[in-house]
Each structure stands twice: as C-alpha cells, then as structure tokens.
Specification:
alpha/beta; 2 domains; seven-stranded mixed sheet; two-stranded antiparallel sheet
Length: about 260
C-alpha cells in the first residue's frame, strides 16, 4: 500500500462520486490532457475511459511515478519531476486540458507561476480544472471589498475567467485532511491588460497588500515617488485600503507604473 507523504502535501482522492463529477466537467474525448499530481492514479483511470488523444502525468514522487508507469502503458507519458521546475510551454505541441488535485502547500505557487509565465501569443492550456484548499479557492474567486480579496484574486483574474464548481469534503481523501477543498474551473481571457513584465503586477499587489488594514497612501507614494497626479486622474482616494480597489484599478496602476519607468 502506498503511504501519502506529508512533505509533498499528498492527499489521495478516493471518493468515486467526486472523481466522476470532476471528469464530467468537460469533454476530453480526442483532447490532450495533463494531470498534475495523479498520486495513485484514481482520476487518471477515469480520464483514460473518456478516450483522450494523449495523457501526460506529472508526479514528483518517484515511487508513485514508477507505479504509474507500470499501471498505465498506452498513450500515457509519466514525467517524474517537480511541476514548479517544468516549462509547460514545451509539454505538448497542442493546447492541454489540465486536471489537478494540487498539493496544498504549493498550490498558490503553481497557479501564480502558470499565470506569470503565460505567453501572450500561444497559451499552453485550454482549460484548468483544479482542486484547492477551500480557503485558497475562496481567495482566488473573491471580489473587491471582501475580506478574502487580495493579491491572489487580482493575479488570477487578470488572465483567467474563473468559476467555482463544487466543494469537496475532507472524507473524500486518504489520508483525510483537516480542511475542505474546492474545485475551480479556469479558462484564458481573450481580452486583458498587456504588461511589459507581468511581475510588475505581482510587485504592485505585494506592496499594496503588505499592510492590508492600512490606507494605501504610503505604498502608493513608495511606488510612484510621491506623485499624486496619477491617483488624482484615476479618481483614487488614497485614504482607502487595498481591498477597496477593484481588479481594473490594480491593472491600470501597473500599466502606469511601467510607463513611468520606460
């Protein structure tokens, strides 16, 4: 019996009802599929029953990867690597549909990496069907003026349309985690703010949300060298708090920040 490794944030999905619900979110017949962290291959088995064109599995755990290689032979490519160190753009010459029961300890890092590294001309995926710790999912889908709104919401909604599908009880996993999970569905946006360097959006939001309960006056002045003209033209009240500014305001601020430094 395979024992889950706490160090890798492993919680294997064992609830067949949830597996069936996930696999029926989108039609994958004759499509290229990528699964992140397949674990013991419970979801992989159902993916293969839907007759995809090609299946790629990324599994960091060497013992699990070797087991998956023996378990699935036809049309399955098992990559025994850390997902954070992989260049997704070269995984497949066609766009992928991605499934992932993401390890809780690196889920936000994975999503942030994918968003920040997206090519403007060729996006490597069509859809993402990802499971997060419920608390993290709530932050991803939160709207401004709410307690969960922050850097992750702003970054994720910059390039992606996001829809909550359903929550998953802790009892659906082995070992049972201490928290519930949530499945989210993502697809790339066709229209979005174009930045010279997306990491500037990460910088802007990091500085603004460093002290989320304080007014934005100080972080704004730090970024814009005490120049209040930009805020004035944008109609931004510098006495507001970071969660009071909507997505578009942060994207526009990033654009202005880049223009000042070009």
């Amino acid at each position: 019996m395979i024992k889950a490794k706490k160090s890798l944030g492993q919680n294997f999905l064992i609830d067949q009802n949830i597996i069936n619900k996930i696999i029926n979110i989108i039609d994958i017949k004759n499509k290229n599929v990528l699964e992140i962290g397949p674990g013991t291959g419970n979801l992989t088995l159902e993916i293969l029953k839907k007759n995809p064109k090609k299946v790629i599995l990324i599994e960091k755990d060497t013992k699990l990867a070797n087991m998956l290689i023996k378990k699935f032979t036809d049309n399955v490519n098992v990559i025994n690597q850390d997902v954070l160190k992989i260049n997704e753009n070269i995984l497949c010459d066609q766009s992928l549909i991605v499934f992932g029961n993401l390890p809780y300890n690196i889920s936000t890092e994975i999503l942030s990496k994918w968003i920040l590294n997206l090519d403007q001309n060729k996006i490597w995926f069509n859809h993402l069907i990802l499971m997060f710790q419920k608390e993290v999912a709530d932050r991803i889908i939160s709207k401004f003026n709410t307690k969960d709104y922050g850097r992750l919401s702003i970054l994720a909604n910059w390039r992606l349309n996001i829809k909550k599908i359903f929550d998953v009880k802790a009892t659906s996993f082995q070992p049972k985690p201490k928290v519930e999970s949530t499945v989210l569905f993502f697809e790339p946006k066709k229209n979005y703010f174009k930045f010279k360097n997306p990491k500037n959006l990460e910088k802007i939001t990091r500085i603004f949300f460093m002290h989320r309960r304080k007014m934005i006056k100080k972080p704004y002045k730090q970024l814009f060298n005490n120049n209040e003209n930009i805020a004035s033209k944008m109609g931004i009240d510098l006495n507001l708090r970071p969660q009071n500014l909507n997505f578009e305001t942060y994207y526009e601020l990033t654009e202005k920040y880049e223009n000042l430094r070009s």
